[in-house]
Design goal:
The structure is a single chain. The protein is an alpha+beta fold. Helix content is 30%, strand content 37%. The protein has three helices and four strands, in the order βααβββα. A hairpin with a 2-residue loop joins β3 and β4. The radius of gyration is 13 Å and the shape is globular.
C-alpha cells in the first residue's frame, strides 16, 4: 500500500528521494547536483510516496511568496504508469 507524506530535508527519506531524483531525472541527461543546489532545498517542502519505508515517488514544492512552485517530480521507473505520481501531485 502506498502512503503519501512529507519528509524532512537531510533525513534518511530525503537521501533516498535524492537518489531517486538522480536516477530518474538527472542521470539520463548526464547531469548531477552540486552542494549549492542541494543547500537551497532546506527551505523547500518535500513530499513522497512510500511503500513501507521505501520511497517510490517524490516531489518538491518551493515557496515563492504566496505561491509554491512544484519541481523535481520523480517516480521509480518500474512504478511509472500506476498513478502514483498523479496521486502525489494531487
Amino acid at each position: 500500500m502506498i502512503h503519501l507524506r512529507e519528509y524532512a530535508y537531510a533525513s534518511t527519506e530525503y537521501d533516498a528521494a535524492l537518489k531517486l531524483r538522480r536516477d530518474v531525472l538527472r542521470r539520463p541527461l548526464g547531469l548531477t547536483y552540486d552542494a549549492a543546489d542541494l543547500a537551497k532545498e532546506a527551505a523547500d517542502i518535500h513530499l513522497g510516496a512510500f511503500e513501507g519505508d521505501a520511497v517510490v515517488a517524490t516531489l518538491i514544492l518551493t515557496p515563492q511568496g504566496d505561491e509554491v512552485t512544484m519541481r523535481q517530480v520523480a517516480v521509480l521507473f518500474d512504478r511509472q504508469g500506476q498513478g502514483i505520481g498523479r496521486k502525489l501531485v494531487a
